[in-house]
Design a protein that fits this description.
With 453 residues, the chain is α+β, with helices and mostly antiparallel strands. It contains 11 helices and 14 strands. The chain has helices spanning 30-59, 66-80, 95-122, 252-263, 269-303, 315-318, 324-336, 338-351, 397-415, 423-426, 441-452, and strands spanning 12-24, 142-145, 153-154, 159-168, 171-179, 191-199, 206-219, 226-230, 236-238, 243-244, 307-311, 355-359, 385-387, 394-396. Strands 10-9-8-11-12 form a 5-stranded mixed β-sheet. It is globular, with a radius of gyration of 27 Å. The two termini are 40 Å apart.
Length: 453
């Protein structure tokens, strides 16, 4: 909430934030790599056992066991099994990891049950399939734990170490080390809630993800509230008229690698090498796109405002099936990653001393931001200039939608009893007809629209 007065820049407020930090594991030698591969294969087997157990109960006419039933009726007997020579069969791995794998089975079934229920109630939508068995080559690629025994411990050279119980060839623990280059764990208020070990798709390395909760002192942001409209031509359009386009990552190498892979002979060694090259290029492309998204969201928060109203589009509804044009549009929607952009704007606004709220997108594109009128015929995506038939307003359609989003965000903040705009800024950011003011955002949008139209 903005602070008035000359000392507002010195005002700090304590906030508890939860963030996920990713670290690259340091060099892992062959014995450790064998242990990790065995863990991932075993967790894939545990996942398949959970799916098979649920299917057997369903065929027998019994109810879904739930997470408690999976743990008590499946996991406990599995851990008690032993070989003929008396050695443990499935208890060589920490139970927490096995239990969390069964949680994935339970979440998958809950999603399936919810889709069936929604389809029966509304008669629309798509029923998502039941959980299926995973192959050992494309099975579980990550595991997590919230046990205190798995929390990072400081070791030499300023590094941290995670130990996981996994008995294999005389070794009792897997030891993963990483450098805390962000100095997060040195904060006395930092508490590691969960740790997650992620295997790279290419099998070339492993990442350690820490879900950390800590208390930080954030400077209150006194800038005015802005509306944010998301799109494809311009990734972000703000209610003040500014527009931001996410930099496009170069896809030439990825396309070339895909072409070489498609021409290679099936089953040949050359095709295996080209497949690996294609996977590496796809991974690099994914990293570039993710970094570009982070840079864009950080730039908006840094240069514009930390008080935002973001349109809450349903990307799944937008990506429908259709002809060639629809497939091309769906591909662009997937590459734009608007859901990830919404999430980044939300938590980065909180870290910058503000807040971002999601607003209903209904009528934000069709309604006039000045008089509130609506056109008789729905405005399609091909119409980029908004022309109001009631008051004569003419401006960029995304800019008009951003102003409507800001108006809805103000109502949300009023319900939350939060005032993101200070008294001195209230008149400047009011919703009177801005065409009466020279140099207003509407006139700027109109001039820019006329220049591009």
């Amino acid at each position: 909430m903005p602070v008035e007065g000359p000392d507002r820049k010195q005002t700090l407020r304590p906030v508890t934030v939860t963030r996920t930090y990713t670290y690259r594991c340091l060099r892992i030698r062959k014995p450790q790599r064998e242990q990790l591969d065995r863990v991932f294969r075993h967790l894939t087997w545990v996942f398949n056992q959970g799916v098979a157990f649920c299917r057997e109960r369903h065929e027998a006419g019994l109810e879904y066991p739930g997470l408690k039933g999976l743990s008590a009726d499946l996991l406990t007997p599995l851990r008690k099994e032993i070989y003929e020579d008396g050695q443990e069969k499935n208890s060589w791995l920490d139970r927490q990891l096995q239990s969390n794998t069964l949680k994935k089975v339970d979440r998958s079934y809950q999603v399936f049950f919810k889709s069936v229920k929604d389809w029966k109630e509304s008669g629309t939508g798509r029923i998502k399939g039941r959980p299926r068995f995973k192959s050992m080559h494309r099975g579980v690629k990550s595991f997590e734990s919230s046990s205190p025994n798995h929390k990072p411990r400081p070791c030499k050279n300023g590094q941290y170490e995670i130990r996981i119980k996994a008995v294999h060839k005389g070794r009792t623990h897997i030891k993963l080390r990483f450098n805390d280059h962000r100095d997060i764990l040195s904060d006395p208020t930092a508490q590691v809630r969960r740790i997650r070990i992620v295997k790279h798709p290419l099998g070339t390395g492993y990442d350690v993800q820490l879900i950390v909760e800590r208390s930080v002192r954030i400077e209150a942001d006194d800038r005015p509230l802005l509306g944010v409209d998301l799109g494809l031509r311009q990734s972000i359009t703000l209610s003040n008229g500014n527009q931001y386009k996410r930099p496009r990552a170069a896809t030439t190498k990825a396309r070339k690698a895909q072409q070489r892979l498609s021409r290679a002979k099936l089953g040949s060694n050359s095709r295996k090498k080209k497949r690996l090259t294609h996977q590496k290029e796809q991974r690099r492309l994914k990293i570039r796109r993710r970094n570009a998204l982070h840079q864009l969201s950080a730039k908006v928060i840094r240069d514009e405002s930390a008080w935002l109203g973001v349109v809450d589009f349903s990307i799944a509804n937008m990506m429908r099936t259709g002809g060639g044009y629809r497939r091309s549009l769906n591909r662009e929607l997937a590459e734009e990653a608007l859901d990830a952009l919404k999430q980044q704007l939300t938590y980065k606004a909180e870290s910058a001393g503000g807040e971002a709220v999601l607003v209903d997108p209904k009528d934000t594109t069709q309604q006039c931001s000045v008089c509130g009128g609506k056109p008789e015929d729905k405005i399609g995506l091909d119409i980029r200039i908004y022309q109001c038939a009631h008051c004569g307003l003419r401006m960029d359609r995304d800019h008009n939608a951003a102003i409507n989003v800001r108006a809805k965000a103000e109502k949300v903040f009023d319900r939350l009893n939060v005032s993101p705009v200070s008294r001195s800024d209230a008149k400047e950011n009011s919703f009177d007809d801005p065409r009466q003011t020279e140099g207003s955002p509407l006139l700027q949008g109109e001039n820019s629209a006329a220049g591009t139209g």
